[in-house]
Structures are given as C-alpha cells and as structure tokens.
Design a protein that fits this description.
The complex is a heterodimer of chains A (282) and B (265).
Chain A lengths: L6 H15 L1 H25 L2 H6 L1 H17 L9 H19 L3 H9 L1 H6 L5 H29 L8 H29 L2 H17 L12 H8 L2 H13 L9 H22 L6
Helix pairs in contact in A: 2-8, 4-5, 4-8, 5-8, 5-9, 5-10, 5-12, 8-9, 8-13, 9-10, 9-12, 9-13, 12-13
Chain B lengths: L1 E12 L2 E7 L2 E3 L3 E5 L6 H8 L7 E6 L2 E2 L4 H7 E4 L11 H11 L4 H14 L15 H13 L5 E5 L7 H18 L2 E6 L2 H7 L2 E6 L2 E6 L1 H7 L7 H9 L9 H14 L1
Parallel strand pairs in B: 4-9, 4-10, 7-8, 8-9
Antiparallel strand pairs in B: 1-2, 1-3, 1-5, 5-6, 10-11
Helix pairs in contact in B: 3-5, 5-6
Classes of the chains: A mainly alpha (282), B alpha/beta (265).
C-alpha cells in the first residue's frame, strides 16, 4: 500500500492487465467472485438461522395435515402413487419456491443502506453478483430439502435412496431455488420498496404453486391452466423431482427437458438481474 | 500530476441539473474536499466518478482511465465508501473484509496479512470476529474504509465520511484519514458539508452550489480571498454560496441521512 506510484504497483497492474485478456483467467475470476458472493450469503444464514427454522413449519403443515387428509380421499388421479407420495416432491418444490421468492427482500435492504453501492463500484462482473445471490438461494433451500426428507421418512413415503438420485434432487433444489431467487431479484430491482415487494411476492407465490403439477397432475387441469402450467418453471422442477425422489415415480416430460428448462430459466433471469444490478446503485 | 481530471462533467435529472459543467483536477497524493450545502450535487459527482452513474455529458479520467469507456479499469483502482452504511451488520468485520478481498482479486497468499495490517491500522483487530451490528458508529466507518483500501486503491472516495458521528469519533476518524494519506500516499477525494472537516483534512477544496463550481483553492486561500480579517472557512463558504439556508435536499435524502445518522449513532 506504500508508495503506490512506484514500480511494484505498475508491475502489478501490467500483470493484471495480461490476466484480464486471458479467457481462462476471466472465467476463473468470474467463478471465484460468484462463489465469494454465495459464501458471504451462506455465512449470513449461519449467523442467523432462525428464518430457516420458521420456514420448516410450512412444509410440515402441507405434508402432515393436507397430505394426510387428501391421501384418504382418492379423488386426485395419481397413478400408482399414493397421494402423499405424489405430493411430497410438490411440497419440496413449493417450500423451495417460497424461501427463494422472498430473497429479493435483502436486495432492497442492501440498497436502502448503501451496501449495494459498494459492490457495484467494485470490479465484480454484475452477473457474478446476481449469480452468487441465486446460488446462495440454492444453499438456503438445502434446509428445506432436509426438512421434507425427514417428514417423508416419518410418514413412510416411498423415498428413492439411490445416491445418484439424491444428488439429482439436490441439483434440482439448487436450480429451482436459483431460478426463483433470480426472479425475486428482478422483481426487487423493479419495485424498489419493501412494501410493494412484499405485496407482489405474496401475489406471485400462490399462482406459481397452484398453476403447477405440485398438488395435482396437469391432466386434470382446465385447458387455460394447462397452458400456464407448461410455462411455469416450477412444473418442470416438480416433474423431475417426482422421478428422482420417489421409488416408483416417473417424469412426464423427461429429465433432460426438465433440467434444460430450469437451466435456461436460471440463466435468463440471472442475466436480467445482473443487468438491473447497477441501476439499484444510482 | 493530476490523478483525477473532469472536463465539463454534467448530470441532469429531468429538468434539474445536479452537476453543471464541473471542470476540476485533483493532484496525486492530495486530500481534495468537495464542499457544498445539501443538494449541491456532491454525491452526484462522486457517483459519476465511481462509475455508478453515467454523466449526461462531459468526461472524467481517473489515472488516465475514462469513467465512461473504461469503467472496469476505473473500478479496479478506486476505493469507495458511500455516505450510507455499506458494512453488512449481519456479518463479522472479518467476513465483511474477506468478501471484498476476494472481489478485488487480492491474491490468496496476501489476503490475511493485508487484512490484519488494515485492521490494526484502524484499531479494529480486537473486534474483527464480532458481528458488525455490535460495533459503534465510528468503528463501522473505519471498517468501511478498510473494506475500500484493502486493494490499495490509487484514489479513495469518501462521501460524507463523518456524517452521524459524535465529535470524538469524528476527530478520531480525521486522524485515521490523515494517517492514510501520510503513510500510504493515497489520494483522497471526499465530500463534506462540515467546514471544520475540510479545514482540518483537505489540501484543496472546491465549493459547489446548485451544481456549479463556485470556488476552488486551498482552505487558507479561500479564507484570504473574501477579504475579511480572521475569516473562517465558514465565512468563505457563506460568501461563495450566498444564502445557504434555503437549500436542504429532498425528503428522501433527508430521511436517508437521518437513518444513517441514527444507525451510526
């Protein structure tokens, strides 16, 4: 830090300038910075895990109350699966959605304080900022996966314990959370105030949930709802989860399409939110 | 040698011209103060120089890099401490530093030593592992400055660095800022509306009023230029800005400043 105008500094910047033009160095720097942001968010969770504890209540209610009751009615055609089995992946996807969709709240908080200004004034690619946040949403959603698996065990859901499938489930949880976290960032950048954000968050979550195959198969939906369900990323997450989480479950769209849709949705939303990021710092 | 040069730098927000054709240059190693009543356009200048806000017209260069064309290069060589709170209260001081050490590409081998050095420089090593929400206002400000100097910036931008601090914490921070210039030779560009602050810290000051530059020079020169015996910088400020009582910033700005003041206090 001493004598910045002297030789050491110049050599430093010459070396850095060289690094900046090397494509491999650009990619590794991007990944490193994305992970730095994600790690920071994960550390915040560790300091204050109370939110995660409260978030466990909702999936518990859905499975223990709604699931237990509806599994007795046999009114929803779920093929060979019991209704409880059928809805377990749906409840996991739903709790991931709920935890992710409100994560944009932190952006509004950081913007009101001034934290965001400092990040935007640093040499960090904007997409690394938004991707880091999206991945952190994925880490936050792990806690929901654990809660749902514990509940599923207690309720004797036919869980598929194949390690490869479990890894697939974790990837799906991260992808789904990243999609909706990035979506939530976009909303936060657009609405700007906490009050409007909370309002819009509440308004959006239920349509995502109900216009998906989380609680009932698409086949029994009216046509207009079928259309919406097909453009809802949650549908593809639930579809893949149903295949990988349950022994005896199967995907209707095929795993490649499910994963493809989620990767696309995450990519597009992360790029949009990265593009909006600097606007929050003006 | 000029490290910052602005040429006719202008920013309009609709009808309002927040910064009107500002042309100044800041010399390497100096502490340059931008003064003016609330709403004079000081923060807008800093936001343009730190690449957060694009100028409507005009240009500025920092160490030869254009703020409009070489944004990434500019961001690499500057440090910025916003007027608002920029340390995250839900992380420890150490974690707040670590993330910026990584974002500024400080090599892994050097991170620890630089962070330790900076923490002891600002007298924060004892509380490094405590959550920032337990810090005092002065400690938060010092942490925020460390966050912005870990990468050894050529220029450090401080936007109202002592807003909301009590007189003791303010004096301590002034000493730290002075030490930063003396020991590290960092060029410092700060905004303030406290004349005592400008007088104590700055080698040169520019006074802005309604977006325009109205005076530029060393504090002593400005005091001398108004022709009254024993003039203070306050007198000079009033002389150059005329009636300062009527300006006061917007509701939103006032609410932000007060909130920052409340959080720091």
């Amino acid at each position: 830090m001493r004598h910045p105008e002297q030789g050491g500094q110049l050599n430093d910047s010459a070396e850095q300038a060289l690094k900046r033009t090397n494509p491999l160095a650009i990619v590794t720097s991007f990944i490193r910075k994305t992970l730095a942001i994600a790690e920071m968010e994960a550390r915040k969770m560790r300091h204050d895990p109370t939110e995660l504890a409260f978030r466990a209540v909702q999936p518990a209610l859905w499975l223990l109350v709604f699931g237990q009751v509806f599994t007795r009615t046999h009114v929803i055609p779920t093929g060979d699966l019991s209704y409880l089995d059928f809805m377990t992946p749906g409840v996991l996807a739903q709790s991931v959605l709920f935890i992710a969709i409100f994560s944009g709240m932190t952006i509004i908080w950081e913007r009101d304080l001034g934290i965001i200004h400092k990040f935007v004034a640093s040499p960090t690619p904007r997409v690394a900022l938004s991707l880091g946040k999206a991945l952190a949403g994925g880490v936050r959603a792990f806690s929901q996966a654990i809660v749902v698996y514990v509940l599923a065990l207690l309720l004797h859901v036919n869980i598929n314990w194949n390690p490869l499938s479990l890894i697939g489930v974790l990837i799906l949880v991260v992808l789904g959370a990243a999609t909706f976290t990035a979506f939530s960032l976009v909303i936060a950048f657009l609405v700007k105030t906490r009050e409007r954000f909370m309002g819009i968050g509440q308004v959006l979550t239920m349509p995502f949930f109900f216009a998906s195959n989380a609680l009932y198969p698409i086949s029994i939906m009216p046509d207009w709802l079928k259309v919406i369900a097909h453009i809802n990323p949650l549908t593809y997450q639930v579809d893949a989860l149903r295949d990988l989480m349950l022994s005896g479950g199967s995907s209707s769209f095929g795993l490649p399409l499910d994963f493809g849709v989620l990767v696309m949705a995450t990519t597009v939303l992360v790029i949009i939110s990265g593009w909006l990021y600097p606007r929050a710092a003006t | 040698m000029a490290i910052i040069e602005t040429v006719e730098l202008t920013r309009r927000f609709g009808e309002l011209t927040a910064v009107d054709s500002l042309t100044v240059s800041v010399q390497l190693g100096e502490v340059f103060g931008l003064l003016g009543p609330n709403g004079a356009g000081k923060t807008t200048v800093i936001k343009m120089l730190t690449t957060l806000l694009r100028p409507t017209s005009g240009e500025a260069r920092i160490a030869g890099f254009s703020i409009t064309k070489n944004g990434v290069d500019v961001r690499r060589i500057i440090g910025y401490v916003p007027q608002l709170l920029s340390a995250d209260s839900t992380l420890t001081g150490y974690e707040n530093l670590m993330v910026f050490a990584k974002l500024y590409d400080i090599p892994r081998a050097e991170r620890k030593s630089r962070m330790t050095e900076a923490l002891s420089f600002m007298g924060l090593q004892e509380v490094a592992n405590k959550l920032v929400r337990t810090y005092s206002g002065g400690m938060i400000r010092r942490l925020e400055i460390i966050q912005s100097i870990l990468h050894r910036p050529r220029v450090l931008f401080l936007d109202e660095p002592t807003v909301g601090l009590d007189p003791l914490a303010r004096k301590a921070l002034w000493e730290h800022i002075n030490k930063l210039r003396v020991e590290y030779g960092t060029t410092i560009f700060l905004t303030t509306h406290l004349m005592e602050e400008a007088d104590r810290l700055c080698s040169r000051v520019a006074i802005m009023h309604h977006g325009k530059l109205v005076a530029l020079g060393a504090p002593a020169e400005l005091k001398a230029s108004i022709g009254a015996a024993d003039a203070t910088l306050d007198d000079a400020f009033i002389h150059f800005t005329g009636d300062v009582l009527e300006s006061g910033g917007s509701y939103r700005e006032t609410s932000r400043t007060r909130r920052t003041a409340q959080r720091l206090g």
